[in-house]
Amino acid sequence: MLESAVTQSQYPNGYSSLAAFIASDRELSVYRKFRRISSRNLLYLQSELRILEHELDRLDEEDLNSETGSIRHLGSQCFAELSKADDAGSKERRELIQNIRKLTKEYRSKMTPLQLFIANSIR
Question: How far apart are CA 99 and CA 50, in angstroms?
């Protein structure tokens, strides 16, 4: 037994009493894994990241063609310059980088547990 014996009167009907019942015995702990929807979520995140990657590539192309020494050109090479620049292109790049960071962090946090789960299920 994981927890002391559960009596009906200790918990209100519903999730509270069901959770107490499940916690009372390790054999009762059966939960859905949601592998299909988790995989689909990863695919959506990959797709979003690919769109952002394409957008960053487009900005890099524009910066490559901009005048050497311009704020935009320097901003593509040095984050300190980019963070100080106030032009629309630099603001766009900063926002894009922030979105990429956010989605990459979310993607990696979802990907690793799923990969571990799949690896452990195959054994």
Answer: 12
Q: Is the pLDDT of residue 1 over 50?
A: no
What's the pTM?
Answer: 0.67
The H-assigned helical ranges of 3-87 are 15-23, 35-64, 71-75, 79-84
Give the model's pLDDT for residue 40.
92
Give the long-range contacts of residues 7-15, CB within 8 A, separation 24 or more: none
Nearest-CA neighbor of 93 among 57, 40, 39, 42? 57
Taken in order 113, 117, 120, 122, the sign of the CA dihedral is: negative
- Rounded-to-integer distance, Cα 57 and Cα 50, Å: 10
The yes-or-no verdict on residue 100 having pLDDT over 60 is: yes
Residues 66 and 87: beta-carbon distance below 8 Å? no
